[in-house]
Write a sequence for this structure.
């Protein structure tokens, strides 16, 4: 039974690492021109993100390292991966000022996700609510728009990235379910 207890202890972090791996794979698929695979990796990461917390609570293995690891995975899978996906497939063909502007907006989205996660790690859930929209929601939203957004112009994606970045760092209260 000792092995089972050890597996239960490490399972949530292994799921979190799988989430992180999906984010890294999404980035690699974006670099190699496979938007569909990149999107699927973000969506799979979102399922794993849900499962790791459930496993940690079920096996009573919630830990500080798990919290930090989860935030790092979320930054990669829902901050960096969707931003790179959008940048490569919607902005990289641009030239001059539009490329610079969309690059700055992409950076803003990524930094907003990092700030949102750091703020959550230091304040947690206050009065049953998140402060700002979780990065997971924004990352899934950006990936989903790429599924349906073949004809959506880069300007709309620039707005969506900037708006999602703002929502993550806002003080908007989102009730935890």
């Amino acid at each position: 039974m000792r092995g089972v207890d050890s597996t239960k202890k490490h399972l949530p972090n292994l799921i979190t690492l799988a989430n992180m791996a999906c984010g890294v794979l999404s980035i690699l698929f974006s670099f190699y021109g496979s938007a569909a695979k990149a999107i699927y990796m973000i969506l799979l990461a979102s399922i794993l993100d849900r499962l790791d917390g459930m496993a940690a609570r079920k096996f009573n293995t919630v830990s500080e390292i798990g919290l930090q690891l989860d935030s790092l995975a979320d930054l990669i899978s829902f901050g960096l991966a969707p931003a790179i996906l959008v940048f490569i497939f919607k902005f990289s063909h641009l030239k001059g000022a539009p490329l610079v502007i969309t690059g700055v907006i992409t950076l803003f989205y990524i930094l907003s996700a990092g700030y949102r996660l750091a703020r959550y790690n230091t304040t947690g859930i206050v009065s049953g609510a998140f402060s700002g929209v979780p990065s997971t929601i924004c990352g899934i939203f950006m990936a989903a728009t790429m599924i349906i957004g073949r004809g959506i112009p880069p300007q709309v994606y620039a707005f969506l990235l900037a708006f999602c970045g703002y929502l993550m760092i806002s003080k908007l209260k989102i009730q935890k379910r």
